[in-house]
Each structure stands twice: as structure tokens, then as C-alpha cells.
UniProtKB/TrEMBL annotation:
Protein name: diguanylate cyclase
UniProt-recorded Gene Ontology molecular function terms: diguanylate cyclase activity
Record flagged with keyword Cytoplasm: no
Transmembrane segment boundaries: 12-33, 196-218
SMART domains recorded: GGDEF (SM00267)
Catalytic activity line of the entry: 2 GTP = 3',3'-c-di-GMP + 2 diphosphate
GGDEF domain residues: 320-450
Length: 451
């Protein structure tokens, strides 16, 4: 079985950084491609379009200069002036210069045929070749004109051919300008697209980065809150010494370090709860050993001393009555001597069970001596305590004990008298009442309010 990927905090942050770096890398690649395309367009314009435009302009300028000179030459020729050598030489110089520009322009156009705009440059090249031929025709006619052959015919042909050349030269310049303009627009379009994509990638990267960072922060904060809550549960449990309910433990559903920490904390909570349960169980057992009689399982003398103080204080604070019963099994030593201590122990257990069945839930039975017991009766009037004592005495007397048969008990009853009374005096009166019951024949209930 393939284990799920453990998304640690480092992996989450690293993943976010990787995504952002990928976007930045994509932006850089796009920028390089766009800049390469823009550079190619600009290089083509610089290497071809600009020189061609210059050559075309030079050709046009040379053609204009040549026309001016030809006009002067023709004017002198028609006026039958012989001093035309200067014009003839200058015209020839411009013809040479124009031929040079044609050669450069044609060479540049041929190199441009292999570019992206090859179809346009094919037309430019064809136009240049046509212009060159037209220029050669003009030169031929002009040479004939210089030699004096058919002056009127050649003059008209030169003028007509020159006008045709001029028209083609202007078309050439416009064609080159259109190509350059279109390329400039393409460059601007590339720049516009580059800007849009760059901004878009930047915005997308920012949104993704902020979103992922926010999710990571929210996840970490939620995990920290749950772990803090669980830590507070542990602290409260340790202080109160109570176990932690499983339903209250917050679980961190994450595979990062917080999830691992939460898992370890949950294990610790389980161990703490288990330790608290064990400690409570041991504490309860120790408390029972310390406060309960090991034979009869009613409270012992240590618990009696503690409870007497508490019930006296409660009676004083709440102004409620508190009664006390002392009881003793009559002739218990005779039972031990006659039947043995095992029978005596069983008899004690039975007496305690009968007494427990007759007292109320809020009343408490204590073994204060070998066969001596006391019963604290909170919120109980003296008459009610006397009635309860008589019921216990009668239940014991009527019970058929195993082995020993019937036995009796004697009981002493008293009432706590409030602020004028003390724990010692309160207990002393009950003990005196018990002694009085025994002295008067046993199997009796005796009551004393004053000593």
C-alpha cells in the first residue's frame, strides 16, 4: 500500500515557493521569447528596412539632381549653347552614384528575401530591378542626346522615361515605408502582448502566493489553537486530578509537524488520563483503607473523628439539628469466648448490615471500638433519633444470628446543643447515655441532654 505524502510545513512553504518560482520562471521564459521576437524584428528593420529606405532616398535624390542637371543641359542644347560639358560630367557622376545605390539596394533586398517578410521584399527587389533598367534606358537616351542624335525625339523619350522612373522610385519608397511601418506595428503589438502577459502572470502569481500563504497560515493557526486547547485540558486535568473525556480532545487532521505533535499530545493525554484513573483508583483504595474498618466495611475511628468535626461545624453554620447514637453489643465477650473470634467477627458484620439497612442515606455508621459503634444523624431531631435507635434495637433483637442465635444491643442518644456545646461534650453525653442503658439492664435506648 502506497503511503500518503506527508505534507510537512517545510513542504507546504516549499511548494508555495516552487509555484511562485515556476510562475516567475514562466514569466522569464515568455519575456525572453518576446524580447527575442522583438529583437529579431528590430534587427531586421535596422539591417534591411532602414538601409533600403536610405538607398531609395539616395536614388530619389540622385534622380532629382540628375533631372535638374538634364533640364539645364536640355535648355542650353535647345538654345544651341555649346557650353554643356559641366552638366554632362555632373550628370554622369550622378549616374555612377545612382548605380552604386542600386547595387547596394538590390544586394540588401536579395538578403531580405530569406526573412519573414520575403514576399514583400520580392516585390521590392522586382521594383528595384525595374528601376535599374529604367535608369539604364534613361542613360542610353541621354547619351544619344549628348551625341546629338535625333535631339527632339530623344528629348521627349528622356523626359517621358525620367517621369516613369520618378513614379516608380516614389512607389518604391512608399512600399519600403509600408513594410517598415507594419513591422513597427508588429513590434508594438509584441510589446503590448508582452506587457499584458507579464502583468497577468504577476497578478496570478500574487493571487496564488497570497492564497496559499493564507491557507498555510490559517491551517497552522487552527492547529496551534487545537493543540493549545488540548494542552489546557491536560493542565486542568492535572490540577483537578480528573481524567480527560475523549470527546473533548481536539484532533488535528494534518500530516505536518503539528499533526505529529497533536498525535503525540493525544497519546500523552491518554497516558495522563490513564494515570489519573489509576491514581484515583489507588487513592480511593488508600482512602478506604484509611477510613473504613477492614472487617465490617463501615467507617473507622479515624473517619469518625474527622466526620464529627465536619458535622458539628455544618450544624453550627446551617443552624440545623444534629443527633448522635452510640451503640454497643451486649455480652459480646461471651460470644467470642463461647463460639470463637470467627463467629464474633461474623456477628459484628451482621450487626453492621442490619444497622445500615435501618439508617438513612445521609446518616453515617462508624466502628469506634471492638463491639462499639456510633451513628451521626445530620439534620435530625432528638425524637427522630430516638425512634431510629429503637428501630435498630428491635431489628437486632429479632434477628436470628447464625450460630449465636439472638443477641441484643444497648444504645445511647443525645442532641448537639449548638454554640454552648462542644465536640467532646457532645460525644461524652452519648457515651454516658450508652453506659446508662447498659446499667439499667441492657437491650435499651437511653437519652441524655444534660450531664
Amino acid at each position: 500500500m502506497i503511503k500518503p505524502i506527508r505534507w510537512t510545513i517545510a513542504k507546504k512553504v516549499g511548494g508555495t515557493v516552487f509555484i511562485l518560482l515556476s510562475i516567475i520562471f514562466s514569466l522569464l521564459i515568455h519575456s525572453l521569447i518576446a524580447l527575442t521576437e522583438i529583437e529579431a524584428e528590430l534587427n531586421e528593420i535596422a539591417a534591411i528596412d532602414v538601409p533600403l529606405t536610405e538607398y531609395a532616398n539616395e536614388i530619389e535624390i540622385a534622380q532629382l539632381e540628375q533631372r535638374i542637371l538634364m533640364d539645364e543641359f536640355i535648355h542650353k542644347k535647345l538654345a544651341k549653347k555649346e557650353h554643356t560639358k559641366k552638366e554632362e560630367q555632373e550628370i554622369i557622376q550622378w549616374q555612377v552614384r545612382m548605380n552604386e545605390q542600386f547595387e547596394l539596394a538590390i544586394k540588401t533586398s536579395k538578403s531580405a528575401v530569406n526573412t519573414a517578410s520575403s514576399s514583400e521584399f520580392k516585390d521590392i527587389l522586382a521594383t528595384l530591378n525595374t528601376l535599374k533598367k529604367e535608369h539604364e534606358i534613361v542613360n542610353t537616351l541621354f547619351n544619344q542626346l549628348i551625341n546629338g542624335e535625333n535631339i527632339s525625339v530623344n528629348l521627349d523619350a528622356v523626359i517621358k522615361q525620367d517621369e516613369n522612373f520618378d513614379r516608380l522610385a516614389i512607389d518604391l519608397i512608399h512600399g519600403i515605408e509600408q513594410i517598415t511601418k507594419r513591422k513597427a506595428n508588429i513590434v508594438l503589438e509584441h510589446e503590448h502582448q508582452f506587457a499584458i502577459i507579464s502583468y497577468s502572470l504577476g497578478i496570478v502569481g500574487a493571487i496564488i502566493g497570497i492564497s496559499l500563504a493564507t491557507l498555510i497560515i490559517i491551517s497552522i493557526k487552527a492547529s496551534i489553537n487545537k493543540i493549545s486547547y488540548n494542552i489546557n485540558l491536560v493542565s486542568s486535568a492535572i490540577k483537578s486530578n480528573k481524567d480527560i473525556p475523549v470527546g473533548q480532545v481536539e484532533k488535528v487532521k494534518s500530516t505536518d509537524e503539528f499533526g505529529e505533535l497533536s498525535h503525540n499530545l493525544t497519546n500523552m493525554i491518554n497516558e495522563v488520563s490513564s494515570d489519573i484513573d489509576k491514581r484515583e483508583k489507588v487513592s480511593k483504595e488508600l482512602n478506604e483503607l484509611a477510613t473504613k474498618d477492614h472487617l465490617t466495611q463501615c467507617f473507622n475511628r479515624f473517619k469518625w473523628d474527622e466526620s464529627l468535626k465536619l458535622e458539628v461545624a455544618r450544624s453550627l453554620n446551617s443552624h440545623t439539628p444534629l443527633s448522635l447514637i452510640f451503640l454497643d453489643i451486649d455480652h459480646f465477650k461471651r460470644i467470642n469466648d463461647t463460639y470463637g473470634h470467627d463467629v464474633g467477627d461474623n456477628t459484628l458484620i451482621d450487626v453492621v448490615n442490619i444497622a445500615q439497612q435501618n439508617i438513612r442515606q445521609l446518616d453515617t455508621l462508624y466502628r469506634t471500638g471492638g463491639e462499639e459503634f456510633s451513628i451521626l444523624l445530620p439534620n435530625t431531631k432528638l425524637t427522630d433519633a430516638q425512634f431510629l435507635s429503637e428501630r435498630i434495637r428491635k431489628s437486632i433483637a429479632e434477628f436470628d444470628f447464625k450460630t449465636v442465635g439472638h443477641i441484643t444491643i444497648s444504645l445511647g442518644v443525645t442532641l448537639f446543643k449548638g454554640k454552648e456545646d462542644t465536640e467532646l461534650a457532645f460525644s461524652k453525653r452519648a457515651d454516658t447515655a450508652l453506659y446508662q442503658a447498659k446499667e439499667s439492664g441492657r437491650n435499651k435506648v437511653s437519652t441524655i441532654l444534660e450531664l
